[in-house]
Write a structure and sequence with these properties.
Elements (H helix, E strand, L loop, with lengths): L1 H10 L1 H44 L5 E7 L6 H19 L6 E15 L5 E8 L6 E6 L12 E6 H7 L6 E6 L8 E11 L17 E4 L1 H10 L7 E8 L9 H17 L3 E3 L3 H53 L4 H35 L1 E3 L2 E2 L11 H19 L2 H4 L4 H9 L6 H4 L2 H25 L11 H33 L5 H11 L5 H38 L3 E5 L2 E5 L2 E5 L3 H5 L4 E11 L1 E4 L2 E2 L5 E5 L1 H7 L11 H10 L3 E5 H5 L7 E5 L5 E10 L10 E5 L4 E4 L2 E5 H7 L6 E6 L5 H10 L4 E6 H9 L2 H35 L1 H9 L4 H34 L22 H27 L3 H9 L1
Parallel strand pairs: 3-8, 5-7, 19-25, 20-22
Antiparallel strand pairs: 1-9, 1-10, 2-3, 2-6, 2-9, 4-7, 6-7, 11-12, 13-26, 13-27, 14-15, 16-19, 16-26, 17-18, 17-21, 20-25, 21-22, 23-24
């Protein structure tokens, strides 16, 4: 049987290769879920830990246990307390599966004071492992034990010398505040040290606790020092520094569980415990679950198409081999034996896939790690990926699922005898099973009903602007959008033959021979492979369009929010100098040319933003509105704004401020207060007289201004009110008021970089208080692992779908041509020229491939318009300024057009070559036989 298996695989090597590619892509994509999740969470962890260190000044992996020792305890009790504490902490930390960077035990005598020189309180400290983490700038390390002259050698840091007024090499008298009548002790400063490395986690607590400390040999402290009888051991610390960058996230749950237990166990043993990052670690279980869920959700359409692809290839393979299967059956082979041959074939492919898939998953994760957007990659360090047991488990799961998918067409085929096979070839299939069951209607109807109720629910949630998102993607968006696309694709291939017949009857007087053959061939195909290909092409391209529009909408939403909030590419708050003139203080205006002439700047403009007192219709506004004064001409060339946010292009509003300098653009809230066009709003800037402005228009949005902003008006009840805004002409305001500090908004030239701009600002020594760089904020946003994973997964899914489309397209046409050798031979023998045969194929390509692709674009566009707007539920209602919108990128469509062109041209060239090699005489002889 093995010989038969390998002979069969060799004879159908191209189909086997296509199946193998499908297996690899499917299992490889599923393996990316655990690999990417571990890698991205590792990146999140490191970034959060670094942020924690910057905010608190504490090393993130610091694990600290503290013991207070009673003053009245004797030395045996003191030593026992330290020993018991050490044993307990060693036992607890051994349960934490995280590499240890450093460990030290610190024991303190906090009750000493210096009696010679500058009287001051000092601490005497014993610390383990000290000698490996200090560099001496004067003197050297202490000698252990009490010296022959009765002194103890100690070391201290540079700041301690200044604090205590001592010097290296000096001997000083210290006294315990509880034993003032006892003989004093004498210590000699043998050396002055600094920490050997600025980034040494051994000194995670910094040098601050040691500004008045003498450090003594640890064993000497517990021995000779305590034995003097005039010293104490007041407290002890055990400090572990865990290397969080090397933590295996598979151990995360056990680590957090152990640390949570420590917060109970240590207090029960009269110990204090702290690990500041425990809350961060606890959040990771939730973040890991969300990330895994998102990656699974994003792969739903691609996995469905991979299953469909494998089923289609397997079906085509079986169709091609049905005659051979029937011969086996007639020669005594059982259905089980035939099934076993194909199962062994799929099993061999599955075994190789199981071994290779996790490594392919690692390669695919490199795409996810450097993804900067949909079908966009940047030259940055990718994710640090590694294999895990989960990757192989996911690969095995994929192999099992797709093995079953591949074997489904084999089951009915293995039962065919030679008689049944010949009968099935002669039988005309009038209606497929899915048509009888109305699967297309069920899928379409179910998805449309769900869409109707969900869209209405979302609209209701956003109506009052209070919707709060949990930041996750609803998986049903992908499930029902895929159902809609599949249902629409099935409906298309159901009605398409009838449409073709109508086209045929309308133009039957005019059809040429190639057109007639092509139309009748496609129109009469009820259960044939043409329908498989048409469904495959329409659904794959529809999913490609949907994936592209989903990714673009989410990415553009983040980009739009950043640029809208800032208002321009770069917003600068410069340093304004004050000067006194005739006992009056005023600002000195900055030189705008300095900013206009910065490297990479295309245009620059002044923008004054300030809160003002406003009066309208004889009453004062409850909340002081924001006044934005602009230079209309320059502002329109500099600011960023979406053209769909206002009824007419926003430049027209700028022009109105030029034509009527005392005019003002008011937010929609003013209209709700009863203000009408032509009414006057009086505004008063701090320290200036009131200015009357005439309302020229009401606007819902304006660059840099948030129409949904709320401010608190009653602290006791937390009542809030909307903060309105006004936009007026800066030059008009400037004439009537004192100079106020304004912002400088910059638009950068195409290709200009932030580094280029910053370098020129530094070179010209411009004084900057704050700079808001939209491009850098967007880069920071795009490095978020969740967004990166979404872009990478959608890009990967799109590429895989397109690759499957090309392979599936070629498989279909190659099998189609080879199965029609006799037909083309007869046509050539009847006088049909080679050119007309090629023309027939061309028309078939048009009627099958191009029409299916066009329908894919239509279905994908409709699905995008329906389902992509639902993704706005990923964000809070208050954060959706400007509003979420669906807008395809022409670049995505161009990429698909290129793929289509390559697919069709390449496929046509292959088919032409196959037809050219057809032996007509052999084909005719075959017909006679």
């Amino acid at each position: 049987m093995l010989t038969l298996l390998f002979r069969k695989m060799r004879s159908t090597r191209w189909m086997v290769l296509c199946l193998f590619i499908g297996f690899l892509l499917a299992a490889g994509m599923m393996s990316t879920v655990p690999i990417y999740m571990d890698s991205s969470l590792q990146r999140i962890l490191i970034k959060d830990m670094q942020a924690y260190q910057q905010e608190t000044g504490e090393y993130p992996g610091e694990y600290v246990v503290t013991k207070s020792v009673p003053i009245k305890a004797d030395n045996a009790q003191r030593r026992s307390a330290v020993q018991e504490m050490t044993e307990l902490v060693d036992d607890r930390t051994s349960r934490i599966d995280m590499p240890q960077a450093n460990k030290k035990i610190i024991i303190y005598d906090d009750y000493m004071y210096l009696t010679t020189g500058k009287t001051a309180r000092v601490k005497v400290i014993g610390m383990t492992g000290l000698e490996d983490h200090v560099t001496f700038i004067e003197g050297g390390m202490y000698a252990p034990g009490q010296q022959p002259d009765g002194t103890f050698q100690v070391i201290c840091n540079e700041e301690c010398l200044k604090t205590l007024g001592i010097s290296c090499g000096g001997t000083y008298e210290i006294q315990n505040s509880f034993y003032t009548s006892a003989e004093p002790l004498y210590v000699t400063v043998s050396g002055v040290f600094r920490q050997s490395s600025e980034n040494d986690s051994y000194w995670s607590e910094t040098m601050e606790p040691y500004l008045n400390a003498f450090l003594i040999d640890y064993d000497t402290f517990l021995g000779d020092y305590l034995d003097t009888g005039v010293t104490t051991l007041g407290s002890a610390d055990i400090r572990y520094s865990f290397d969080y960058q090397k933590m295996d996230l598979n151990d995360l749950s056990s680590i957090t569980k152990t640390i949570d237990e420590d917060f109970t166990i240590y207090p029960a043993n009269d110990l204090r415990f702290s690990m500041g990052i425990n809350d961060i670690l606890s959040e990771y279980a939730v973040r890991a679950a969300n990330l895994k869920s998102m990656l699974w959700i994003l792969q739903i359409p691609t996995i469905v198409m991979l299953a469909f692809y494998l089923f289609m290839v397997s079906q085509l393979n079986v169709e091609q081999e049905k005659n051979e299967i029937a011969v086996f059956k007639s020669r005594g082979a059982s259905s089980g034996q035939i099934f076993a041959i194909y199962a062994m074939e799929a099993g061999v492919l599955g075994l190789v896939t199981f071994i290779a898939a996790p490594f392919i998953g690692m390669l695919l994760c490199s795409f996810l790690g450097v993804s900067n957007g949909f079908l966009e990659f940047v030259n940055r360090t990718g994710l640090s990926v590694k294999l895990s047991l989960d990757a192989f488990i996911y690969a095995l799961l994929a192999v099992v699922i797709f093995f079953i998918t591949t074997m489904l067409p084999i089951i009915p085929a293995s039962k065919l005898s030679i008689v049944k096979y010949k009968q099935s070839k002669a039988r005309v299939v009038k209606m497929s099973l899915w048509e009888k069951l109305c699967i297309d209607v069920i899928l379409l109807g179910g998805s449309l009903v769900w869409y109707f109720f969900t869209a209405r629910s979302i609209k209701r949630l956003f109506a009052d602007g209070t919707y709060v998102s949990d930041g996750t993607i609803n998986p049903l968006y992908f499930v029902f959008s895929t159902m809609f696309i599949m249902g629409a694709g099935l409906l298309f291939i159901r009605v398409y033959p009838y449409v073709l017949r109508l086209v045929y009857y309308i133009g039957k007087r005019f059809w040429t021979v190639p057109q007639y053959i092509a139309i009748t061939s496609v129109a009469r195909s009820q259960g044939g492979r043409e329908r498989f290909l048409m469904l495959f092409l329409s659904v794959t391209f529809a999913l490609g369009i949907f994936s592209a529009n989903t990714a673009r909408a989410i990415n553009n939403s983040k980009s739009d929010r950043i640029y809208y909030s800032n208002g321009a590419d770069v917003v600068i708050d410069a340093y304004w100098r004050l000067e006194n003139v005739e006992d009056e203080t005023s600002y000195v205006e900055i030189d705008m040319d300095d900013f206009q002439n910065l490297s990479g700047v295309e245009t620059a403009t002044r923008v004054l933003r300030t809160d003002v007192r406003a009066t309208y219709n004889g009453q004062r506004s409850d909340v002081d509105p924001t006044l934005m004064a602009i230079e209309p001409g320059k502002f329109s060339q500099t600011a960023w704004f979406r053209s769909d946010l206002l009824p007419v292009h926003w430049w027209n509003y700028c022009s109105a401020l030029v034509d009527y300098k005392a005019g003002v653009l008011a937010s929609r809230g003013w209209e709700e207060k009863g203000v009408q066009l032509g009414d006057t709003i009086s505004v008063k800037l701090s320290g200036n007289d009131s200015i009357d402005l005439t309302v020229l228009a009401f606007v819902d949005y304006w660059p840099g201004l948030d129409p949904t902003e709320q401010v608190e008006v009653n602290s006791s009840t937390s009542e809030t009110a909307a903060k309105d805004f006004l936009v007026c002409n800066y030059n008009y305001i400037r004439k009537l008021t004192e100079l106020q500090p304004y912002q400088i908004w910059l638009k950068l030239q195409d290709g200009a970089t932030s580094e280029q701009l910053y370098a020129d600002i530094s070179a010209k020594n411009l004084k900057i208080q704050r700079i808001q760089d939209s491009s850098q904020m967007l880069i920071e946003e795009k490095t978020d692992p969740a967004l990166q994973g979404m872009n990478g997964a959608l890009t990967l899914g799109f590429v895989v779908i397109m690759l499957m489309t090309v392979i599936g397209f070629l498989i279909y046409w190659i099998i189609s041509i080879r199965s029609r050798t006799l037909q083309f031979g007869v046509l050539r023998a009847m006088g049909v020229t080679f050119r007309e045969v090629i023309s027939t194929l061309g028309w078939e390509q048009l009627l099958v491939s191009l029409v299916s692709i066009a329908m894919g674009f239509v279905i994908g566009g409709i699905a995008s318009d329906m389902f992509v707007p639902m993704f706005r539920t990923m964000y809070d209602a208050a954060d959706q300024v400007p509003p979420f919108r669906v807008q395809g990128d022409p670049g995505d469509y161009i990429k698909m057009y290129v793929i289509i062109a390559i697919m069709l041209i390449g496929g046509f060239a292959v088919l032409g070559g196959i037809i050219r090699k057809i032996n007509i005489n052999k084909a005719l002889k075959l017909g006679e036989d």
